[in-house]
Amino acid sequence: MHGLQAWIFDLDGTLTLAQHDFPAIRRQLGIPAEADILAYLKSCAPAERLRLQSELDAIERELAQQVSPAPGAAELIRHLHAEGHKLGILTRNLQQVARDSLAVIGVLDCFAAEDILGRDQAEPKPGPGGILDLLSRWQQSPRDAVMLGDFRFDLEAGRAAGCHTCLIHPENSWPALADWHMPDCGSLLRFLQQ
Ligand SMILES: [Mg+2]
């Protein structure tokens, strides 16, 4: 892991503390309990899709105001940036919300503006499109890259792109999908500093 050049992070629940109550968001939007929110929106008729989309955007902008850093997240990003690695964000959230959240946790300056991909800039995870876009722009091989996140979609996106994967979550819930498992960003930083 120490030799990897390209580091692509999920945002919510990985670099920031999980604050999305997805069941509550589904209820607010009137979306079936078991549905993937973005896939459901895509399946709606255009007028309904626009209405739900703007409601969801408003919810996420509101949540961004209350964001707080996950343990060790800012220090980990600072460390990787200082080492000269390529850093990207791939989130199913809005790009502007991602920028605001990174600013609140104090690491926005570690990311090039075009390397923060939200749901309007890239195929949503678990699709690999966003990872492949970043790697192609950076001229990096998937072999030298890792996708890090707190959910199955992050790991599946990494696998589909052919890069390494790291689950950042207290529980190792998807061992078959993760090359590494770290309980939090601080543990990963300590591992890298060994
Ligand atoms: Mg997440």
Automatic annotation (TrEMBL):
It comes from the Bacteria. Pfam families: HAD_2. Gene3D superfamilies: 1.10.260.80, HAD superfamily/HAD-like (3.40.50.1000). Its cofactor is Mg(2+). NCBIfam families: HAD-SF-IA-v3. This is Haloacid dehalogenase superfamily, subfamily IA, variant 3 with third motif having DD or ED. It comes from Halopseudomonas salegens.
